[in-house]
TrEMBL record, chains A, B:
Quaternary structure, from the entry: Homodimer.
Domain of life, per lineage: Bacteria
Entry keyword set: Amino-acid biosynthesis, Histidine biosynthesis, Hydrolase, Methionine biosynthesis, Multifunctional enzyme, NADP, One-carbon metabolism, Oxidoreductase, Purine biosynthesis
Pathway note: One-carbon metabolism; tetrahydrofolate interconversion
Domain Tetrahydrofolate dehydrogenase/cyclohydrolase NAD(P)-binding: from-to ranges: 141-279
CDD domains in the record: NAD_bind_m-THF_DH_Cyclohyd
The family this protein is said to belong to: Belongs to the tetrahydrofolate dehydrogenase/cyclohydrolase family.
Annotated NADP(+) binding sites: G167, R168, S169
Protein encoded by which gene: folD
Summary of the function given for this chain in its UniProt record: Catalyzes the oxidation of 5,10-methylenetetrahydrofolate to 5,10-methenyltetrahydrofolate and then the hydrolysis of 5,10-methenyltetrahydrofolate to 10-formyltetrahydrofolate.
Any Pfam family hit: THF_DHG_CYH_C
Protein name in UniProt: Bifunctional protein FolD
HAMAP family cross-referenced by the UniProt entry: THF_DHG_CYH (MF_01576)
Length: 283, 283
């Protein structure tokens, strides 16, 4: 068995961001308005601070303005909701990103729902999730959306394939499964309560690992020739897949880092420009 | 192998409706208000007329008032939306049911979204679907909700089990899978594009057939001892499961009729009273 081909998220994301930058510049030429992403951060968790800064930097490279709102860690749900509602009503803001998790004392769902669906470029609202699930227009969750772009770029058509999603979070596993189902895959959701995870994963033509447990999926769990997408983030740049053994069985595999990660931000930027186009009537 | 035990939806639904009738009477005693379900019917499709009449009749037995709005077949989306928005704002109406399908010229999704989530006792809105999917409080789609009640009544705990849902409609297959996933089943969605349906179904500890194709699931597809739930409606009182062969392999099975069907209306009535309780502040 030869080694799998790598799905290069860094290169694909670069192309998507370049296209997005051109779209943004064209929009600004036509309307005089620069697309703007508002980022909202509660508290000063170092990882969250880093993520937000990274997103702001990438906005610049894509000709997108960003506006940052930093709120104290002790911010109450109603104040966060108020901030998000104000950004939703602000015509100078086209997309809104609430960096999460937001802390246990905040009702995260209430906060998400305060984001207007037309500005929900991170795809976190009920309406965005349902639209993804029903194959209707709307913004997708950025990581699942980025995964679908990667599959498309490498010629993987999910239709009729067995897809196994390991993980069922609201912003990653659940929407990833729904997007695959909308593209006619036969989709199985596995999770911490799944009794024989290895057996379930071995059925998969496409595996999406999205659970946050280092090297949970090993090569012996991978059906020969399967497509393996590792959306896991773990300390030390380790994914949810044991890359060294899985690469010997898969036909296509995402590296960590440089696979799914870059596609997440690229999708965020692309959706921000799309939101601005729609709001400015230039879609 | 002995024959499967029947899951008697008629008997369970009777108990649920009796409980609901008592709750409704108690609510009326305390508040002077009778819970009210508004039914909206577009056109005069004979099956739809029958379904609506059946629901109105069952309302009476549950001490629920019903109000019927009949609209001509040619009703435009905006008029239907206007009707549903008015019912959503009407304090005398606690639950709203839009009989569907509504006809190809109507934007059914726009109509559903005009129903206030707190009155969405049929569980058709984006918000209800997402809440079901994320295990949050809200009203469930009535047929999937009825299925979960049946499983509970017969002591079937989905946790850790392999569940296979055949069908992926917005009001049946998709929410049924999400409710099973929220209860910790390992859930697979199959559909018309699934390549080897028999093989997928044979993995299932719990099968939910919800696709509307007569006798699609045969006994030989059923893993011995599996729980088989037939949510299919086909002409001539035939389900999606070939009952005569499946009953020889399953441990529990729903008959058609008398299985899932009665539980759908029972769930609608129960959720109407629950909606009234919440709106009247007596929850």
């Amino acid at each position: 068995m030869s080694q799998a081909r790598l799905m290069d998220g860094t290169a694909l994301a670069r192309r998507v961001v370049e296209d997005t930058a051109r779209r943004a510049a064209r929009l600004t030429d036509r309307t005089g308005v620069t697309p703007c992403l508002a980022t909202v951060l509660v508290g000063e968790d170092p990882a969250s601070v880093t993520y937000v800064r990274m997103k702001q930097n990438r906005c610049r490279t894509a000709n997108i303005a960003s506006r940052h709102v930093a709120l104290p860690a002790a911010t109450a749900t109603e104040d966060l909701v108020g901030t998000l509602a104000a950004l939703s009503a602000d015509p100078g803001v086209h997309g809104i990103l609430l960096q999460h998790p937001v802390g246990d004392h905040v009702d995260e769902r209430a906060a998400f729902e305060a984001i207007a669906p037309e500005k929900d470029v991170d795809g976190v609202t009920f309406a965005s999730f349902a639209a993804m699930s029903f194959g209707l227009p709307g913004f997708v969750s950025c990581t699942p959306g980025g995964i679908m772009r990667l599959l498309d770029a490498y010629g993987v058509d999910p239709a009729g394939k067995r897809a196994v999603v390991v993980g069922r979070s609201a912003i990653l596993g659940k929407p990833a499964g729904m997007l695959l189902l909308a593209r006619d895959a036969t989709v199985t959701y596995c999770h911490s309560r799944t009794e024989d995870l290895s057996a379930a994963v071995r059925e998969a033509d496409i595996v999406v690992a999205a659970v946050g447990r280092p090297r949970l999926i090993r090569g012996q769990d991978v059906k020969p020739g399967a497509v393996v997408v590792d959306a896991g983030y773990n300390a030390g740049n380790v994914g949810d897949v044991d890359f060294d053994s899985a690469v010997e069985r898969a036909s296509l595999i995402t590296p960590v880092p440089g696979g799914v990660g870059p596609m997440t931000i690229a999708t965020l930027l692309e959706q921000t420009v799309e939101a601005a186009e729609r709001q400015l009537g230039v879609a």
